[in-house]
Backbone:
C-alpha cells in the first residue's frame, strides 16, 4: 500500500462527512477513482454510514463501529 493510500483512507471519513477543503476533497476523490482498493473501501464506508444513519438517525457509537469493522475484517481475512 502506498503513502497515498494511507492518506486517502485516513481522510476518507472526513471526506464522507464533507469536512475537507475543496482541494483536499478533490485529491481524495481522484485517488479513490484511480485506486480500486481504496475506491472499494470508500464505497463500503459510504454505504455503511448511510445505512446506519438512516436506521438510527443519529451518530453511531464508536464501539459499534469498531465491532462492525472487526466483523467485516474477520470475514474478509478468515485468519
Ligand atoms: Zn489507494
Residues:
Amino acid at each position: 500500500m502506498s503513502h497515498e493510500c494511507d492518506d486517502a483512507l485516513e481522510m476518507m471519513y472526513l471526506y464522507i462527512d464533507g469536512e475537507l477543503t475543496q482541494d483536499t476533497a478533490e485529491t481524495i476523490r481522484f485517488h479513490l477513482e484511480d485506486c480500486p482498493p481504496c475506491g472499494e473501501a470508500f464505497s463500503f464506508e459510504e454505504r455503511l454510514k448511510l445505512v446506519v444513519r438512516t436506521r438510527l438517525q443519529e451518530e453511531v457509537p464508536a464501539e459499534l463501529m469498531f465491532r462492525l469493522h472487526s466483523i467485516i475484517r474477520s470475514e474478509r481475512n478468515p485468519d
Notes: Residues 34 and 65 are 27 Å apart (CA to CA). The chain has one domain: 3-76.
